[in-house]
Amino acid sequence: MKKYVYSFGGGTADGDGKMKDILGGKGAGLAEMSRAGVPVPPGFTIACQVSNLYFEAGNRVPEEINGQMYKALGMLEGRMGQKLGDPGNPLLVSVRSGAKFSMPGMMDTILNLGLNDETALSLAGKGGDRFACDCYRRFIQMFGSVVLEIEKNEFERLIEARKKKARARLDTDLDASDWLAVIAGYKQLVKKKTGRDFPQDARRQLEMARDAVFRSWNNDRAIHYRRMNKIPDDLGTAVNVQAMVFGNLGETSATGVGFTRNPATGERVFYGEFLVNAQGEDVVAGIRTPRPIAELETVMPEVYQQLREITAMLEKHYRDVQDFEFTVQENKLYMLQTRNGKRTGPAAVRIAVDMVREGLINKKDAVLRVDPSQLDQLLHPTLDVKSLKSLARLGRGLPASPGAAVGRIVFTAEDAVEQSANGPVILVRKETVPDDIHGMEVSKGILTSRGGMTSHAAVVARGMGTPCVAGAEMMQVDERGRSLSVSADGRKVTLKEGDWLSIDGGTGDIYSGQAATREADPTSGYLAGFMGWADEFRGSFGVRANADIPRDAKAARKFGAEGIGLCRTEHMFFGEDRLPHVQAMILSDNEKDRRKALARLLPMQRADFAGLFKAMDGFPVVIRTLDPPLHEFVPKREELMVDLAKLPGADAAARKEMAARYRMKAADLKKRLPELLKRVEQLHEFNPMLGHRGCRLGITYPEITEMQARAIFEAAVQVAGKGVKVIPEVMIPLVGGVQELEHQKAIVKRVAEEVLAKAGMKNLHYMIGTMIEIPRAALTADQVAKEAEFFSFGTNDLTQTTMGLSRDDYTKFSKDYEQKKIFKADPFAVLDQEGVGKLVKMAVELGRRSRPDLEVGICGEHGGEPSSVEFCFRAGMNYVSCSPYRVPIARLAAAQAAISGDKTEAMRTA
Amino acid sequence: MKKYVYSFGGGTADGDGKMKDILGGKGAGLAEMSRAGVPVPPGFTIACQVSNLYFEAGNRVPEEINGQMYKALGMLEGRMGQKLGDPGNPLLVSVRSGAKFSMPGMMDTILNLGLNDETALSLAGKGGDRFACDCYRRFIQMFGSVVLEIEKNEFERLIEARKKKARARLDTDLDASDWLAVIAGYKQLVKKKTGRDFPQDARRQLEMARDAVFRSWNNDRAIHYRRMNKIPDDLGTAVNVQAMVFGNLGETSATGVGFTRNPATGERVFYGEFLVNAQGEDVVAGIRTPRPIAELETVMPEVYQQLREITAMLEKHYRDVQDFEFTVQENKLYMLQTRNGKRTGPAAVRIAVDMVREGLINKKDAVLRVDPSQLDQLLHPTLDVKSLKSLARLGRGLPASPGAAVGRIVFTAEDAVEQSANGPVILVRKETVPDDIHGMEVSKGILTSRGGMTSHAAVVARGMGTPCVAGAEMMQVDERGRSLSVSADGRKVTLKEGDWLSIDGGTGDIYSGQAATREADPTSGYLAGFMGWADEFRGSFGVRANADIPRDAKAARKFGAEGIGLCRTEHMFFGEDRLPHVQAMILSDNEKDRRKALARLLPMQRADFAGLFKAMDGFPVVIRTLDPPLHEFVPKREELMVDLAKLPGADAAARKEMAARYRMKAADLKKRLPELLKRVEQLHEFNPMLGHRGCRLGITYPEITEMQARAIFEAAVQVAGKGVKVIPEVMIPLVGGVQELEHQKAIVKRVAEEVLAKAGMKNLHYMIGTMIEIPRAALTADQVAKEAEFFSFGTNDLTQTTMGLSRDDYTKFSKDYEQKKIFKADPFAVLDQEGVGKLVKMAVELGRRSRPDLEVGICGEHGGEPSSVEFCFRAGMNYVSCSPYRVPIARLAAAQAAISGDKTEAMRTA
Q1: pLDDT at B904
Q2: What was the ipTM of the complex prediction?
Q3: Which end of chain B is more exposed for a tag (fewer CB within 10 A), N or C?
Q4: Shortest CB distance from A737 goes to which of B776, B813, B835?
């Protein structure tokens, strides 16, 4: 007959660590430890397949398997010198589920099984009445809820009633007689709910518990979890039955947890805590203060020595830091669990590098060992935790751009510019608009009450490397009144301009007051070496940065960017010295006047591009022609309407303020405000995201594209003349079909040829390509690629259009969608591979069909998100481009994708 | 040697009508007529291939082909008894291009070739000096511009100068001596521009003209036209050389045009006009008034008889109404052209039906003969043309919903309701919003200054069958001031409330004043019979209507709809009696209050659905759950902001007006307006099209879906109980992935089962499906179809998202896009088959892969556009759904698609 039950313990095991299919993850781990000579409480594992047999047989376990189980139980009893249900020397066991893939919290656990009215007495003899009673009531409670399906809080209620009666505050204030009363109450409850007495037969308890674990495989939570995580339903779960051990049997017993290295710093020191005469829960419950693990050496020198040896061995065995739990029962050490330890970003890097040096792992392992998103912690300043204790936490928004920022509050971009001269400022807005750029540039941090992870504030802040917390919706911002208020802990806190504020863009936390910060060192020895290894494996897959100004471009180079993947030229339009010309262009109603205004912008744009080319010497620079709708550059429609409504009743001061805002004379307001509103009304759009923007502007106003092309190529000529290697890639945005690209390309090409010919630089290599950010462009990519020399996926907008989802409005219902599991993740943070990704793959394939050497990249926010970077690699792109501060993350993610390339290559062809 | 030149004339021809590849369209037609014994001026055709040979040989015609041409010329000279260039009896010819596919206006024509200083004298002997001079100067002008590439207006300028000198107003006021002077001037011009004399050698003229026609194949216009129309570049153009005939050689000559049947009504009467002693141009130029063709019988009885016989024969030959041109030269009849005649919609139907009765064509031909969009003219009232003469035309907007409407102007929905009691009104708005529905319902017509063919006004008006002109951007609408102004013909016209206005929704024309209208008869005998034939061929491919209220549903049935393909439930939310409850629901901040408001809406929705089910007895009714974002149901944000700004300075009357608008007490305004604004601000969206709407609402507020499901199934039970056959199909909008559908379907199903079980009607058949209107749903259609029992393509939104193009904002640059040929047509009117269509086909295929019997339809505006209907048929859909008034159009388009199914089936598998 087939083997269904696998014993372990005593330095041996029927199974091993590789048998996860049969034993489940936990069972395989226990077998592995046992084989390795680690002292684990012995026990046995009932194979996963049995849960299928259980369901097939109509919720019963076939008799022969029962036989195997009792045989294994006999062996366990032998090992422990105890017998299940023996009133004199009872064996107690835990019963736990354990599927092949971890399904945390989905299925249940029962401890202290084997207790009944008699065996409890025997336990009392060993550990005292109070101990025995506590074990027994815990068992009834777990068994009652998991196996007998009685509501947990029905049990809790009985304890609460007893505590009230005994005038006890904590559970620990109850004595043995109290617990006896509770147990009596529990038993009555079981009788009332199930119509039967609580089962006293220990074997029956075991069978019932085992079957309940099997049934838990098909509870709603578990089914839903499997569907979400694509775990097949027919894997089934194993059941692990393991002897109980107790750390609370007096001064020779103890319990503790630890790490083989410091999980915060990565330093190679033994790290952990323990408590004498305590249970595992006590260490984490915070009632007693645990002692540093080093002290165990004094308290139990032999045990300590053994623990050091075992954990060192486990670290070597698993070739990774171990996070372990142990219990000492009457001077005997038992390892309850070991697993690879979670660690901070800095620790992850240090441990990986150290382990290579120690010969424990190779470079490839090291590169795979660090979660790319953890690098973030190494690249930004952080709030000093100690200093936070004295501050009031106001709440949490979205962690939109990482890093800590501390400064005085300002509510407008103008104030930011003014106040930043006197010290650090944090710009607080309902939402930011392109107009706010100059204020955002001088602020240490940005906080908004609206907008999502890819709102204007978030995108711009990430690009600048400025910390940002966005969409802090619990916050009321009154920009005109210069105040913000939050209801925190039931009371309303109001902050005014000039008050100190501290934000953590990595967590979204907001504090009132001035916290201390700790600077990060992005060029630390560990990180530098580690990134070098990553780049070795990354190969030809490139990482560029999105950067609009030379300052960002230089930062990007420092972080390892190999070019600029996206320069948004509109950034340059918002400068104080430029906006008036931009507005003049927009407000003029004929081409001649527009050309006049553009002529004034030309030298400024040329200088901008020259700066970028210089910073990127030898690397390509992708420059996108004007993208946002023109109304973003003029005053807001609603503001104008309100001001116009107020004008008749406004006094001299109010008029003066208004006039200054609109750069008009106060006397002209009456005439000019309605004119301005009329033009603004003409520009008003119902859905600006889908409106008159991108190449659509360049098609209506070819003179804009012409000016930009001239600025690009005149800058290229100028800089190349100084010996800098310039590689311009001109990118046309929002193309939906080849006709649009054709139209714009013709303009750019004509200007380029003209400028280069004039300069005698006909050989300067440049490309003209397009963003793929509209489904139609992806669907017709074969046509588009006939004209496009490169594609760059604008996955922000492609996500918006493919999902019909405005990133700015998504925050309205994102909570519903993420709580109800409609979306697995925010699709603006993590690329939706199933939908958007399908279009991306289609476009790459169609594009290369027309133009085999088509350069393909991504410049959406996803270009810095690890799972999305891996996707881009698999989709056959040439590079990703992201915010400068995410470049190392993308480099690492790309390296990992390249390493697992063989496997994923097979997936791609599947 | 291969034959390259084909003669025709004298009742015979080398080629025939099928040889379009070789002879081009015109040449093949001339050969066919000649063979059929029709007296056409004789001539010859140089084959299309020669133009390729011409280019290959470096812009020369190979010598042997020249030989063939002169041989054919010799034959022509023989037939005419004249010789090219013979001063005594000169042959004059026309030289015209003629490619396989008609390329109207792309290439040029030269008349009177063969004239020179000598032959002109001979012509003078025949027709007088003035005649000869006129012919000669016309020839120099055409030859000069087409062959010698001299600007046309350089010639015009010389005539103008002469007219000034002669104090003549019209060309006809000039006498022979004037024309001689003009000719002299022309010749000087040619010498000046080309450096040579005007060619006097007639054979050289012929060769030069022929080569110029060949070259015109490659002019920019022609190349562009071919690219747009996907005509291969290597087809080349033929050249037709044909003897000139003159209708202006005295009283025995004449010229005329005609139709074999009345092209306006279809009546079988000989129809046309002629002029004695005139040229073709004179008939159309309007200088002399042509005479009805019946009078030709008296003037030239024999010619008339011959013309009747020939045209009757041609109609029979081509089996279609002929539109012909003829010339009588000295009592001899020549047919210059015949082609299938353009006709109005009513005429098309009548002719097709008559011709079947006459045995000329079969039913299938008849069904293919009528352009489906022409049916529109039969289905709506029209403006009476005569009555327009006394009115001022104000301009033209977009023809958004066909039909004529005449009424007094109102500027608000409220005024419309009030004034419509006193007589017909036209609602004039900048744009309409859902709030305006009650005003739109009572108006005879709707006129807006903003928005496109699928703006709210347009969509709703089409659904109601109400004439609408949208996006009349030259018009300034001042809704508060109750006036509209237009600058027409340089002067400003201002109309006020109560002024009469006439609009034609079929053309977009707007007239100030009260026009007369003519009612259409949609159930006329001809149309009814014709549609019957169409339905025979249409087979199982269904046509449904989009209808929200029983009135529209009944209209839809009258027009032949086989069910409702889209009922928009939100329509019902805007009713005067409902809006307060809807607003109460939206403004409440907890589920309990929302449920209270919904409970009040339930009986109203139930009654609505019951009405629809009754009207559609036996046919399916697709009901879409709530779709628009909630802010559409509350006051506009900007209006609130403006009112709030005005409030402090408002006098009692203004406060009263404001209070009435917001349904508040005047005293409460100060407190409640800011509260209202706050909630409206929360609902405000940046891109409402991509915002919190569709199933996203139902997921956030499941109680809304629940109420709607309850209303649907309670109505179904109620109506089914009365013996009506009810087939509800519940449609979930804006689904992007299967998870959303799963969530909403569970609610609908639970309520349905509950209601049906309670009523003991468990067998009532219903379906739950989804709209496919977001690219992601199409891309993951295999997943979606696992839950969806039907798909309905919402191609309005699918076009918006796939193209990243807001239909409301597209009007801002639609002119640029259509003029610059970026788009071939408005993608909201004609489905973009290349992009959006690709997604549609993909979704149908993926959907059927999961669910082979998936019902698939379309409910976007495209469902009533003929080429899109054909596409839907080819894509394998089960039905289309459109506005009730477009149902016959869709039925016909579907029939035509079905008839050409064999061919298109092959395309589908290609």
Answers
A1: 43
A2: 0.80
A3: C
A4: B835
Please give the structure tokens belonging to residue A300. Answer: 């139990």
Q: What is the mean pLDDT of residues B704-714?
A: 98
Residue A908: pLDDT over 60: no
Tokens 């307006």 belong to residue: B673
The runs of H, that is alpha helices, within B559-590 are 579-587
Q: How does residue A223 score in pLDDT terms, banded at 50, 70 and 90? A: confident
- A287-304 pLDDT, tens digit per residue, is 577 888 999 999 999 999
Cα-based angle B172, B174, B179 (whole degrees, multiple of 5): 115
Q: CA B531, CA B559: separation in Å to the nearest integer?
A: 10
B384-408 residue pLDDT tens: 888 888 898 899 998 888 889 999 9
Number of neighbouring beta carbons within 10 Å of residue B37: 12
According to the model, what pLDDT value does residue B283 have? 64
Instruction: Give the predicted TM-score (pTM) of the model.
Output: 0.80
Q: Which of A86, A886, A233, A43 is nearest to A506 (CA)?
A: A886
Residues of A identified as active-site? 456, 859
CA distance A846 to chain B (A): 13
Amino acid at B379: L
Concatenate the DSSP letters of all residues of A484-532 into one string: EEEEETTEEEEEETT-EEEEETTTTEEEES---EE---TT-HHHHHHHH
pLDDT over threshold 50, residue B656:
yes
Task: Pick A691's closest partner by Cβ from B736, B737, B806.
Answer: B806
Tokens of B308: 């009747």
Q: Are A21 and A100 in contact (CB under 8 A)?
A: yes
A480 touches chain B (CB under 8 A): no
Q: Closest Cα to residue A346, out of A518, A469, A462? A: A518
Chain-chain contact of B804 with A736 (C-beta, under 8 angstroms): yes
In B, residues 775-804, which contact A (CB 8 Å cutoff)? 775-776, 779-780, 783, 797, 800-804
Which of A2-11, A147-156, A710-719, B221-230 comes out lowest in average pLDDT? Answer: B221-230
pLDDT, residue B572, reads 83
- pLDDT tens profile B39-94: 999 999 999 999 999 999 999 999 999 999 999 999 999 999 999 999 999 999 99
Q: Which two tokens stand for residue B643?
A: 């009112």
Contact residues for A880 (Cβ-Cβ < 8 A; gap 6+): A542, A543, A544, A565, A857, A858, A863, A864, A869, A872, A890, A894
Give the distance, in angstroms, between the CA of residue A527 and the centroid of all CA atoms in the same chain. Answer: 21
Residue entry with tokens 């019909």: A804
Long-range pairs, B366-371, Cβ under 8 A, ≥24: B366/B530, B366/B533, B367/B530, B367/B533, B367/B534, B367/B537, B367/B892, B367/B895, B367/B896, B367/B899, B368/B896, B368/B899, B368/B900, B369/B320, B370/B345, B370/B530, B370/B892, B371/B345, B371/B866
The fraction of chain B above a pLDDT of 70, given in percent, is: 96
- In one letter, which amino acid is A357? R
C-beta atoms of B641 and A642 within 8 A: yes
What is the per-residue burial (b if ≥16 Cβ within 10 Å, else e) of B589-620?
eeeeebbebbebbbeebbebbbbbbbbbeebb
DSSP 8-state assignment for residue A100: S
Q: pLDDT (tens digit, 9 = 90+) per residue, B160-207?
A: 999 899 898 877 788 888 999 999 999 999 999 999 999 999 999 999
pLDDT confidence of residue A80: 92
Chain-centroid distance, C-alpha B736: 33
CA A475 – CA A483 distance, rounded (Å): 10
Size of interface A-B (CB pairs under 8 A): 190
Q: Are strands A109-113 and B392-396 parallel, antiparallel or unpaired?
A: unpaired
- B673: part of which helix (H) or strand (E)? helix B669-683
Residue B805 contacts A, CB cutoff 8 Å: yes
Q: CB of A564 within 8 A of CB of A621?
A: yes
**Catalytic residue status for B859:** yes
